[in-house]
Structures are given as C-alpha cells and as structure tokens.
Amino acid sequence: MNRIPSAEAGSGLGWIKSSYSTAEGPDCIEIAAAPATIHIRDSKNPDGPRLALTPAAWATFLPYISPR
Fold it and tell me: Helix-strand-coil percent breakdown of the chain, rounded to 5?
C-alpha cells in the first residue's frame, strides 16, 4: 500500500489516505497519527465523525483490515 498525504488546514494532523482509494473507487479511510492517538475518518466525509484510538487499540485493529 502506498500512502498519499492529505492536507487539512488548521487541524494540525497530517491525514494519510491509501493509494487504493480513488475518487471513483471503493470506500476508504484516512488516518492521522498524533503522539497519543491514531485518528480515523471516512475519506468521502472528512468533516464527519472521527474515531481516536490509542496506539495499542490501533495495533489490535490492524490485522482485521485489508484492501479489497
């Protein structure tokens, strides 16, 4: 998976979207790492709800996700 940075003014977070995600493609998430949390959002709705996970919770989540 290649990572494509996505800029967001004023958030202080550097959002990363998978290169598997395109404007016409399937649903995808974006992530942004902060010192104590991993933030997750829907790439199609960047202003919508977000999750914030601890690094330990993120590590537990990773094995359950994969590209389609």
Answer: 15, 30, 55
User: What's the chain's average pLDDT?
Assistant: 76
What is the radius of gyration, based on Cα positions, of the chain? 12
What does the pLDDT read at residue 62? 84
Q: Which parts of 6-63 fold into alpha helices (H)?
A: 55-61
Torsion 46-51-54-56 (CA) sign: negative
Cα dihedral value 20, 30, 45, 40, nearest 10: 140
Q: What pLDDT is stored for residue 9 in this prediction?
A: 38
Over 90: is that where the pLDDT of 32 sits?
yes
Q: With residue 1 as reference, give the H or E element that holds it.
A: none
